[in-house]
Amino acid sequence: MESIVPQKSGRLLSLDVMRGLIMIFLAGEACSVYESLRELHVGGAFDNLLLQFDHHPWHGLRLWDLIQPAFMLIAGTAMYISYHNKQKKGITWGQNFKHIALRSLKLFILGTAVQCFYKGHLVWELWNVLTQLSVTSLIAYLIINRSYTFQIIVSALLLILTEILYRTILMNGFDSPFMEYHNFGAYMDTVLMGKINFDGWVTINIIPTAAHTIWGVLAGKLLMSSKTAKQKIQYLIIAGIIGLVLGFGLDKTQITPIIKRIATSSFTLASGGWVFLLMALLYWLIDVKKLNKYAWIVVVVGMNSIFIYYFFNTVGYQWLNGAVAIFVKGFAGLIGIAPKASAVLSALTTWVLEWGLCYWLAKRKIFVKL
Fold it and tell me: In this structure, are residues 346 and 322 in contact, taking their beta carbons and an 8 Å threshold?
């Protein structure tokens, strides 16, 4: 691993692992791995497991609903750690703000551009995670120097603001706070883009999910502190439990349902709770217990997260998936492999090739940054 992964003093390998896992899962979706497996219709527990690799249709929570919160939260953690290291070099908040603002602009452009790739023509859509992250990063950075208490209060106010907006601004046709296509978020999309999302996603998710990025900053501040590893793990676990109790509590008491597509406050809290627990587990396994012998397999992807995300959503989606399918499905057909099984082989092959690209880049110390 030493020859591939940069070894820096004080580097938290667990964060690289977490980022890599997120990207590998997303790449699997872009390569149609989960979709092709679902088409096998194996049944039973296997099909139930595959359900976890798709978003919940509306009210509820699945594993796949945690991917974006994890992405947003770890972005906040990485931002704080980067800022912390720059401070040691004498770089001020104001000097670094220029970098953050420019990076946010790049993320916004990339996020809106990838929607055009999806549609095959120019569109004005603000639903992509990169577009969302461009705004949440700015919000989190504006208060990055404030106290834990201040940042927690701001994140809570963002969730309260979301509740107020959905419950009090009831426009004609958009007067049902938690009904798909008929809520305040959908109304705002008609204002911002002149249309609503067919799958129920809304642009103003940037308000509640900014809490995820702020919480990521808090996690970064904790991990960079002088507290012992045991204390850090304890705080992460406590934060995770609080998030789960509050999130599922709001849902079970029928105050606010857990709905990922409009990022309700209950969803934001519950998903944040799960991510904190995952962060605690990985920190304990990777950075404390040093069970990292094979971490490089995941880390090589995490180190080029923006590049591979954009690659599998553009070149992969528009060309590589189909190019690989031509040969894999073709040869599979020649030896009598069923079409549905060959589709799985094709998807897995593309997935491995994209991992190989990340490995090749990491081996040559090529890391794409914004």
Answer: no
